[in-house]
Amino acid sequence: MIGRETPSAGAMQLIGSLLEQRTGQQIAANRAWRIETALKPLLREHGLASVDALVGRLIASRTGELADKVVDVLLNQETSFFRDGAVLEHLVQAAQAMQEEGPGRRLRIWSAGCSTGQEPLSLAMLLAERADAFAMPPEIVASDVSPAAIARARAGRYSQFEIQRGLPVRRMVQWFDATGAGEWVAKPDLVRRIQFRRHNLTADAPPPGRFDIILCRNVMLYFSPALRRQVFDELAGAIRPGGLLVLGAGETVIGLTERFIPSQAFRGMYVAIDAAAPLAAIA
Amino acid sequence: MKTCLVVDDSKVIRKVARHILETLEFDVREAADGREALDACLADAPDVILLDWNMPVMSGMDFLRALKEAGLPQRPKVVFCTTENGMAYIRAAIEAGADEYVMKPFDRETLESKLQIVGVA
Lengths: 283, 121
Ligand SMILES: C[S@@+](CC[C@H](N)C(=O)[O-])C[C@H]1O[C@@H](n2cnc3c(N)ncnc32)[C@H](O)[C@@H]1O
Ligand SMILES: [Mg+2]
Hints:
The complex is a heterodimer of chains A (about 280) and B (about 120). Chain A is an alpha/beta fold and about 280 residues long. Chain A has two domains: about 10-75, Orthogonal Bundle (Chemotaxis Receptor Methyltransferase Cher, domain 1); about 85-280, Vaccinia Virus protein VP39 (Rossmann fold, 3-Layer(aba) Sandwich). Chain A is built from twelve helices and ten strands. In chain A, the strands form two sheets. A seven-stranded mixed sheet of chain A has the order 6-2-1-7-8-10-9, sandwiched between helices. A three-stranded antiparallel sheet of chain A has the order 3-5-4. In chain A, helix 11 links the parallel strand 7 and strand 8. In chain A, helix 1 packs across helix 4 and helix 2 packs across helix 4. The longest helix of chain A is centred in the N-terminal third of the chain and has 17 residues, at about 85-100. The radius of gyration of chain A is 21 Å and the shape is globular. Chain B has one domain: 3-Layer(aba) Sandwich (Rossmann fold). In chain B, helix 2 (about 35-45) packs parallel to helix 3 (about 60-70). Chain B is about 45% helix and about 20% strand. Chain B has helices at about 10-25, 35-45, 60-70, 85-95, 110-115, and strands spanning about 1-5, 25-30, 50, 75-80, 100-105. Chain B is α/β, with parallel strands linked by helices and about 120 residues long. In chain B, strand 3 (about 50), helix 3 (about 60-70) and strand 4 form a beta-alpha-beta unit. A five-stranded parallel sheet of chain B has the order 2-1-3-4-5, with helices on both faces. Chain B is globular. The interface between A and B is medium-sized, with 14 and 18 residues. The complex binds S-adenosylmethionine and magnesium ion. The site of S-adenosylmethionine (SAM) has 24 residues of chain A, from loops. Magnesium ion binds near residues 8, 9, 10, 54 and 55 of chain B.
């Protein structure tokens, strides 16, 4: 192929460290090839011939705008409606149990690393379907480090392929409108149940107040162990003692924090321990 | 191994669907219209049916009604798979008893996801 240059090791390293500095995400060696593929549209958009040329522009540019875009396209934002749906069902049961313990209280849930919104929207649908079990509709905060992902989540607009991944058709017709252009948009009555915001788990203070439940699924897979530990500590500070943390299917807190322990009642979830009396809570 | 009956008057669509379904480890059968599909179901009901809407001889909707009337002991799951992507069509399909709905064009992930939702994949 003419004009196609393999990126230099130095360029790849700089791109990798930019991503890690901004988001904590490390690029595993076996995923390095994806960098080039992911950057291609951006190279084209900026008339750059190669990844090395991009790095040159990054070093020279004064505004962080290009760097923001690079970070955004390199983030893995893979998601779907009702991903690991059984866990979401359990979570709603856990929320119902919490409501029974504190009738009249408004529950608070945080979906951290919500990507393009399928996770909090799925949750909002489930909670709305059990509305009679809750004193008030639980508060849902949904955040992501990527401004583009959050903008998409807020718009609640999905392609035909996205809308058909994980979402049962009955829920689709109940909660979404067809735009006529082959896209589907979440009804205002659903979207208004969620507060979307940009938030970086590795750099920003958590949203204020204590949460009853935090979801942080498939976000920390490529964080270093040290960074995971740091983020678990942050999350422990943002959750009330007895609150529940939900991770992705292949993720665990074990060996990384003493602030959460596996829940006995809800498999696959972790209970936040009262930092003041950790041993009493374990016993 | 679960069985899937692919009902579509387009040979190309049947071929594409068959290919995907076989990678999902389904035993695939084919029918070119609702009439053929009904005969196939009465002879040996599949676990799930992937059903086109517009077909000669007998449409997907007419097939669905006939299938209901046939009163099979174990009614197969029915997943519509059609270019009729409007809300009115989708609602009508659900009302007629369809379990799921795939809007064409579809890919492997869509099909797999919908088959999981109806509990056969
Ligand atoms: C693979 S998606 C998972 C989305 C959803 N939680 C799920 O499980 O389907 C991971 C998301 O985490 C976000 N993310 C990555 N690093 C982050 C950070 N440091 N702070 C907040 N979000 C981050 C990414 O932008 C991406 O949208
Ligand atoms: Mg047809």
